[in-house]
Amino acid sequence: MATTEIYRYLTIEKKTYALDPEGYLVDMGDWSPEVAEALAHEEGIVLTAEHWEILQVLRDFYVRYEMAPAMRPLVKAVGQALGPAKGRSIHLMRLFPGSPAKVAARLAGLPKPTHCL
């Protein structure tokens, strides 16, 4: 079993969470809404109901496929779960600037999506 390099720690109310060099949780079991809020704060994002529904779609996708989706599968999954208006790249870019698949996966406590630079 490969070991994951730990880059730094995130501390919330005296509990410490290990993050890998790219800021993703080392242990997915450590994820909680509080962890998502703290990671979002680091990204300059204030989580709204729209963010939370995307994070839930991501977490459901991971349970089903055992991987975090790259952008194209993310758009498709969001469209199927939340409708075509929300399953658009522009909507996801507005909520998760930069690289929506990577940022949203990080906030959802998932590993970095495959095929994302």
Automatic annotation (TrEMBL):
<dbReference type="InterPro" id="IPR043163">
    <property type="entry name" value="DsrC-like_N"/>
</dbReference>
<comment type="similarity">
    <text>Belongs to the dsrC/tusE family.</text>
</comment>
<dbReference type="InterPro" id="IPR025526">
    <property type="entry name" value="DsrC-like_dom_sf"/>
</dbReference>
<keyword id="KW-0808">Transferase</keyword>
<protein>
    <recommendedName>
        <fullName>Sulfurtransferase</fullName>
        <ecNumber>2.8.1.-</ecNumber>
    </recommendedName>
</protein>
<keyword id="KW-0963">Cytoplasm</keyword>
<comment type="function">
    <text>Part of a sulfur-relay system.</text>
</comment>
<dbReference type="InterPro" id="IPR042072">
    <property type="entry name" value="DsrC-like_C"/>
</dbReference>
<dbReference type="InterPro" id="IPR007453">
    <property type="entry name" value="DsrC/TusE"/>
</dbReference>
<dbReference type="Pfam" id="PF04358">
    <property type="entry name" value="DsrC"/>
</dbReference>
